[in-house]
Amino acid sequence: MKRIWPVLLLLLSTLLLRAGELLRLEDSVDAMGTTFIAVAYGEDETELQQAMAAAFEEALRLDRMLSNYRPESEWSRVNRQAAAGPVKVSDELFSLLDYCAQVHRASEGTFDISVGPLMRVWGFFRGSGRLPPLAELSQAREKVGFANVVLDRAARTVRFLKPGVELDPGGIGKGYAVDRMIERLKAHGIKSAMISAGASSIYGLGAPPGDTGWTVKIRHPRRYTQTVAEVKLKDGSLSTSGDYEKFFEAGGKIYSHIMDPRTGYPAAGVLSVSVMAPRTLDSEAWTKPFFILGRQWAVKNKPEGMRVFLCEDEEKPSCAWLP
Fold this sequence. Notes:
Radius of gyration: 20 Å
Oligomer: single chain
Distance between the termini: 35 Å
CATH class of the domain at 74-169: Mainly Alpha
Largest sheet: 9 strands, antiparallel
CATH architecture of the domain at 74-169: Orthogonal Bundle
Structural class: alpha+beta
Order of helices and strands: EEEEEHHEHHHEEHEEEEEEEEEEHEE
Helix content: 25-40%
CATH superfamily of the domain at 74-169: ApbE-like superfamily
């Protein structure tokens, strides 16, 4: 499986620098199957380091809650037990699952965290990707569909209507973690920071000294040394999904990790989608429906307050912001 980061960021490893009257602290932590990189400015070295430590502990806490690679996580417990009966979950996890249900409805079913069986059968769960036998694919498709997931708001429980249903946090976990990490930085008085999750979901808090926002460059989906857009993030997020992030090739065709839950196959929509939104949770989640459903649907249905940047047309890629 090949992986190419869709966004160009020039960040260093752990480093403390003087930037005028402010200190600049850069550091990173591995969690949720990716690397979170954080940059923050402040006046006091100790306060900066405490704020960074709090943000990273939040990423690790969410890894313990949301990871489907950790058998002991709350997410994994739901996957193991919900087919046997209702599973009581924390208010935090229930709210996140309820959010997923809302986006599922608004996206005509194209955002669907129940794609876990498809991720497994296509080899994207702890694997490099493969073409599945049709029989296996058919069996996996029978277990996919958010209609099989029952959320009881009063009891705060999750129940699956059939065995084999499996939720995958890949479409929302990193974005949610970035937002929570930003909140931890703000609680420690940080007014200028940027957090990047695997370089595909980014939030810019305030602006770096002497600038109007955090500069982020979006790469060309086929010519990776070229930039197709540059944005300034100030109290907002940018997420990018593309068919080049995680993929394998077979028979001269690219199969990406972005699943179309309606067909059971990797989506063959546009080449890449970038979304700007006030929250990283929203920008990360909505890249998938826009990727699957394409330009016309996105123009008509993008939520208020979002900006969407599409790269499409395989023969001659064209990239532009939607009106």
